[in-house]
Design goal:
Blueprint lengths: L1 E9 L10 E6 L2 E6 L9 E4 L4 E4 L1 E6 L12 H10 L2 E6 L10 H12 L5 E6 L13 H7 L3 E2 L9 H14 L3 E3 L12 E2 L2 H6 L3 E2 L2 H17 L3 E3 L5 H12 L4 E5 L1 H5 L2 H6 L15 H13 L4 E2 L8 H4 L16 H11 L6 H6 L3 H4 L20 E11 L18 E11 L2 E5 L9
Parallel strand pairs: 1-4, 1-5, 6-7, 7-8, 8-9, 10-13, 11-12, 13-14, 14-15
Antiparallel strand pairs: 1-2, 2-3, 5-16, 16-17, 17-18
The structure holds zinc ion (ZN).
Zinc ion binds next to loops.
Length: 439
């Protein structure tokens, strides 16, 4: 199978190559990049004039609810949703039922997802057995089975001694701990950001110090052990200040931010009359926090954008605010939402920077064998995303591949959409044409 992707603006993971480029995919591998003689024999030719060809987007943090909660999402619907959102690689979180804390469950994810036609799925393993925070899970065996990151996501690693031990193991294994930063003694019963939202709605407030103080703890453990720590879904200005300081002093700490914290604030909750579609952990913050995230994204403090895609069934989400589950589903519109907000804010950083947050940025958080996942180059696997920066579409959740049917972006017009997704040279999503099915 020879595929020609012609006339694209090519982003290689770090920068745009000059002019436009042709890319040849042969048997799943990028065989050539440059000006290609069109008289050669190709099975498929796509003219990508006016579009951007990128390394396949990587989502470091999504909830695919498999095993055990497949009514919310499963590996197949998740893989298809990921592909439709322009992601070639998804890291799925281990707060499933049972929690992903054994090598057998890691293999279950890898084997089942192999049969799905969509994004590649890489499992994250638990830090502690059953995510209970008491004893270390079998990190070594899980890493050998294919777990790419370790996290108790949904909760922090609340026992600091266990966190320290996990960091030491993770360095030996060449993996990272992804910390869900939350000091739970500060968030018990909290529903919304502590500020105008908690005041006006009379709901218990969630202070930003709950996040920043856990990030401080993680930074201090990183300094102590020399181990990298990745902080996920960072939402508050206070947290950014701690991270900026940690990075400036040379700590190997990294972080990601979500599309919803980049695009929405607590004011939306008030404007929508406390609609539970905006209920998320950590909560939507103030506009000042959101501005701080964009500044951190521009100056390099933020390493990746990760969706924290958290699908729920209607029955679990379409409820009064206090009773609804925490979580926002976004996999299929995350890239467009972020690019629309970036444009709305007057493009505060170069497009290269934005694209690196979906490609080389997250690839750099994964174990070393994934470092090429965020690049385009001859000889590399053809995991590619085509982006149409001018395409405008309205989000219709009822058309989603995901099982989620509630999202803050439903009905919103967004600009800048992924239009084709290739995984190992196979087209797994196309906005325009038919998709090859797995044989
Ligand atoms: Zn989390």
């Amino acid at each position: 199978m020879r595929i020609l992707l012609g006339n694209a603006m090519l982003f290689d993971g770090a920068r745009f190559l000059p002019g436009t480029m042709d890319t040849v995919i042969e048997n799943g591998i990028i065989a050539a990049i440059g000006k290609i003689d069109r008289s050669g024999k190709f099975d498929v030719v796509h003219d990508l004039t006016g579009k951007v060809l990128c390394p396949g987007f990587i989502d470091l943090h999504c909830h695919l609810r498999d095993p055990g909660q497949e009514w919310r999402e499963d590996l197949d619907s998740g893989a298809k949703a990921g592909a439709a959102g322009g992601f070639t690689t998804l890291v799925c979180m281990p707060n499933t039922d049972p929690p992903l804390d054994t090598p057998a469950l890691v293999r279950y994810i890898l084997e089942k997802s192999e049969k799905c036609c969509g994004s590649r799925i890489l499992p994250a393993g638990c830090v502690s057995k059953e995510r209970k925070g008491k004893t270390l899970a079998e990190m070594g065996k899980m890493a050998r089975a294919g777990a790419v990151i370790f996290t108790d996501d949904g909760s922090p690693v609340s026992d600091t001694g266990l966190f320290r031990l996990a960091l030491q193991y993770s360095t030996w294994l060449g993996t990272r701990i992804m910390e869900h930063p939350e000091e739970i003694s500060l968030t018990a019963g909290a529903q919304v950001n502590e500020g105008i939202c908690s005041t006006f709605l009379g709901l218990k407030g969630w202070p930003s110090s709950a996040e920043a103080s856990d990030i401080s703890r993680g930074c201090s453990l990183s300094r102590d052990t020399g181990a990298p720590v990745h902080f996920t879904h960072v939402s508050a200005e206070d947290s950014i200040l701690v991270l900026r300081e940690g990075k400036a002093s040379g700590l190997p700490v990294t972080c990601d931010v979500t599309p919803h914290h980049l695009c929405l604030t607590e004011e939306e909750i008030l404007a929508a009359g406390a609609d539970s579609v905006y209920k998320v952990n950590p909560p939507l913050r103030s506009s000042r926090d959101r501005d701080a995230l964009w500044e951190a994204l521009s100056d390099g403090t933020v390493d990746a954008i990760a969706t924290d895609h958290a699908p729920y069934h209607m029955d679990e989400k379409d409820l009064p605010f206090q009773e609804a589950s925490f979580g926002i589903a976004s996999l299929e519109c995350a890239v467009a939402a972020v690019l629309s907000e970036w444009a709305r804010r007057g493009k505060p950083c170069p497009l290269e920077r934005m694209l690196s947050l979906f490609t080389s940025g997250p690839a750099g958080i994964l174990p070393i064998e994934w470092k090429d996942a965020g690049k385009i180059g001859g000889g590399l696997s053809a995991n590619l995303t085509v982006l149409d920066l001018d395409l405008e579409r309205v989000v219709h959740v009822e058309e989603w591949k995901s099982k989620a049917r509630l999202s803050p972006w439903n009905g919103r017009r967004l600009r800048g959409w992924p239009t084709m997704t290739f995984v190992n040279g196979r087209m797994v999503h196309s906005y325009e044409g038919p998709i090859e099915e797995v044989d």
